[in-house]
Write a structure and sequence with these properties.
The protein is an alpha/beta fold and about 325 residues long. It is built from 13 helices and five strands. A hairpin with a 5-residue loop joins strand 2 and strand 3. Keywords: Hydrolase, Metal-binding, Nuclease, Nucleus.
């Protein structure tokens, strides 16, 4: 009698775990970007969704880790080319539907208190709930509106905007804006901006670079040049050091998932889902893995500068208060 669909799915899960078990420690972390117990936990999380789909979902891992061609992955796992494509799409969808709500979410009040304390302890910057920045994900030139995706570095790309905490984990992402769009515009179109401007859900400060608009809850550096004061330069230095958190997070993300480093050949309609899944798995690894096993990719893109806002708005008063705080702190250190 032919085995039931559920029985065949259970057999595949058993085979998957057996394959992971026989990997040595180096090969396992190299190919799956996580330790055995973490990978097993991920399998269990996805089990209910993917057993229903009858999916050999281990085949999707090399695609997002290395950007390996579908044909090579199909040969590696003994499945057809079309089946490999289907499996990858099902796994990516499952990660975004099942795992993302748990691992990328707006922090609770208690979690924000922990984040604020973490930034204060590590970078001595008060009242910070996250650092925001964008990064470009290279893509093949789309057949439609390709000029919109051509960025200032001469590549076709989409933009990932992320907010990270003191542990280099994303708690907000926005994926998919064409590469030509300025960081400030990406931010303005995001749900994060709408929540912040509506006066809800953002009880602490975010830190960003000069590309972002200064607001009562998003603080950026002073424009440097003629007239800049030593206090302002000191403030800029402190803010820049703190914002290394988001640059390091992107470095670790791309170090883990090399598909984000190469020009992605996937259809434009699905690339955003892949990027989102990579961010989810990055957080999963940061939560469950005790050490980072891959090299970080240096992130030094930097945003284009926007015109400076003028006038005694409240946002300028908040930034000036922070500047005075660091100035007083510096004087206190030198007086000891």
């Amino acid at each position: 009698m032919r085995a039931s669909r559920q029985t065949r799915a259970r057999r595949r899960l058993t085979l998957l775990n057996r394959e992971v078990l026989i990997f040595c420690r180096y090969r396992r972390t190299k190919h799956f970007r996580m330790k055995r117990d973490s990978f097993s936990q991920l399998c269990e999380t996805l089990r209910s969704w993917l057993t229903r789909k009858n999916t050999k979902y281990r085949a999707a891992v090399p695609r997002i880790v290395t950007n390996l061609e579908y044909r090579s992955i199909a040969q590696l796992f003994g499945v057809g080319l079309s089946t490999c494509c289907q499996i990858t799409q099902e796994v990516i969808t499952a990660i975004n539907v099942v795992v993302r709500p748990k691992y990328i979410k707006h922090p609770s009040s208690a979690e924000f208190r922990e984040i604020v304390q973490g930034f204060r302890d590590r970078w001595r910057f008060p009242q910070v709930g996250g650092c925001i920045d964008g990064t470009h994900i290279k893509i093949r030139a789309p057949s439609n509106n390709s000029a919109d995706y051509y960025n200032r570095k001469g590549d076709y790309s989409i933009i990932l905007q992320g907010v990270v905490d003191h542990k280099l984990r994303f708690w907000d992402i926005n994926v998919g804006c064409p590469g030509k769009v300025h960081d400030a515009r990406v931010y303005a179109l995001s749900s994060l901006c709408k929540r912040g401007n509506g006066g809800v859900d953002v009880p602490v400060l975010l830190l960003g670079d000069l590309a972002y608009p200064l607001s009562t809850w998003l603080i950026k550096p002073y424009q440097e040049g003629p007239g800049v004061t030593p206090d302002q330069l000191n403030f800029n230095s402190k803010l820049s050091s703190c914002c290394m958190a988001v640059e390091r997070a992107y470095g670790r993300l791309k170090g883990r998932f090399c598909c984000l480093l190469k020009s992605n050949e996937t259809h434009i309609t699905f690339i955003s889902q892949i990027v989102s899944a990579c961010c989810v798995l990055h957080n999963f690894c940061e939560v469950h893995n005790k050490e980072y096993m891959d090299r970080e990719v240096e992130e030094a893109e930097g945003g284009d500068e926007e015109g400076q806002q003028q006038g005694p708005q409240q946002q300028h008063m908040i930034r000036d208060a922070l500047r005075r705080y660091f100035s007083a702190l510096q004087k206190l250190v030198f007086s000891i």
